[in-house]
Write a structure and sequence with these properties.
The chain is about 50% helix and about 10% strand. With about 400 residues, it is mostly helical. It has three domains: about 5-55, no CATH class; about 65-160, DNA polymerase, domain 1; about 180-345, hpI Integrase, Chain A, CATH 1.10.443.10. A hairpin with a 6-residue loop joins β2 (about 10-20) and β3. The protein is elongated and about 95 Å long.
Length: about 400
């Protein structure tokens, strides 16, 4: 890293070569004015050279938009298709119009907070307030991009790290009653047995909708009564359906209850009869839930949600969501005393702490049952024949406790 001094009146100009701009390709020089003697100026130049070499000075011509573009191009490879689609929306609709032309060395925390306030109040290009969760996603994209700029040495610190996006207020988990779930499955069975099978698995395994849409027959072992969740179906930025890893990039094997095994057996028979009637067959790699007679294409997760919504509305259950079947599986298992680690494994959470965090409200309510249970245990123990009431050991005739 080169640097030199130049006398300018009663001051010194410190000038350091900082490489080439990654956007324009031009040579970059950093300058600073110093007042004092030559020896002190030389010391200041040495420190200035170290600052530039350590990335403490920003690339002058780089804009926020250029940074986001370069970061996103590199980050795409490690993101799921659905995440890429969400990030593209955040960048195209909110970040680039508001911050894209601002130079990185000019971006301030106040500008970022002002953007979040505009998005929250409806002062954006769409003229409507954004949900808090969406603004948090915009913040996550900007923060990650700016953090990459710090690593590249474009800026010294990340202004988004000091910004104040709105807080997401999580609503308490509301699990549908067993009678409601049973009605949904029964009603689906009258109109669409395949949909009934889907809802049966959703309610008993707690699997996500994309995971069930991505289920192949070779992942179903009807003899052992297990299903292996390894893939998920999502739509990419072009609307095409692709398979990806599960949300936590893990593979889990889930035991099936006898009713679910029976339902899947019936579902397989229907699929094979439909295929045979059309002169084809169901293979092991065919999708379990497919509108193609040979099972070659998966159900669309969005179509499943739309069909569930229509079914729910016919039953007058407007507040129940398809994802609530996952909550149903989790809360009922926890209420039945199934260990949290087991429930976490069935749901595909990263760890048991995640399960506890999501269902903390429900567990707090069930804690009253735990208190009553321990009370009954103690009472039954004291009431048992031959059980003496507690008393200090000692000589009761003299009243002296030993």
């Amino acid at each position: 890293m080169r640097g030199h001094l130049r006398k300018r009146g009663d001051a010194w100009e410190l000038r350091v070569y900082a490489g080439r701009d990654p956007v324009s390709g031009r040579q970059i020089y950093r300058t600073r004015t110093f007042r004092g003697g030559r020896r002190d100026a030389e010391d200041a130049l040495g420190k200035f050279v170290q600052e530039v070499a350590g990335g403490a000075c920003v690339t002058r011509d780089a804009t926020v938009g250029a940074l986001i573009e370069q970061w996103f191009e590199l980050a795409k490879a490690d993101l799921s298709p659905s995440t890429v689609r969400g990030y593209e929306t955040c960048i195209r609709c909110y970040l680039e119009p508001a911050l894209g032309d601002i130079r990185l060395d000019s971006l301030r925390v106040a500008q970022i907070d002002h953007l979040y306030a505009q998005l929250r109040s409806g002062g954006n290009r769409f003229g409507r307030p954004l949900a808090t969760a969406t603004i948090r996603q915009v913040h996550a994209v900007l923060r990650r991009a700016l953090q990459q700029a710090v690593k590249w040495g474009w800026i010294q610190s990340n202004p988004a790290a000091l910004a104040s996006p709105p807080r997401v207020r999580n609503r308490p988990i509301e699990s549908p009653e067993p009678t409601v779930v049973a009605r949904l499955i029964q009603m689906a069975g009258d109109d669409n047995p395949d949909m009934a099978a889907f809802l049966q698995l959703a309610a008993t395994t707690g699997a996500r909708r994309g995971e069930l849409c991505g289920l192949h027959w070779d992942a179903v072992d009807l003899e052992r009564g297990t299903v292996t969740i390894a893939r998920s179906v999502v739509s990419d930025s072009r609307g095409a359906f692709v398979e990806k890893d599960t949300k936590t990039h893990s593979v889990r094997r889930i035991a099936l209850d006898p009713t679910s095994v029976e339902v899947l057996n019936d579902h397989r028979d229907r699929a094979e009869k439909r295929a045979a009637a059309c002169g084809t067959s169901i293979r092991q790699d065919s999708y379990v839930f497919s509108r193609a007679v040979d099972g070659s294409k998966p159900w669309s997760p969005n179509d499943v949600t739309a069909e569930f919504a229509a079914l729910r509305n016919r039953l007058g259950l407007g507040s129940v969501r398809l994802h609530d079947l996952r909550h149903f599986a989790a809360t009922r298992l926890l209420a039945a005393g199934i260990p949290v680690r087991t429930v976490s494994g069935r749901l595909g959470h990263a760890n048991a702490a995640t399960t506890l965090g999501v269902y903390a409200h429900f567990l707090a309510e069930s804690d009253r049952e735990a208190a009553n249970t321990i009370d009954e245990i103690l009472k039954s123990s004291l009431a048992a024949p031959g059980t003496a009431e507690y008393a200090p050991q000692g000589d009761h005739s003299t009243g002296v406790v030993k």
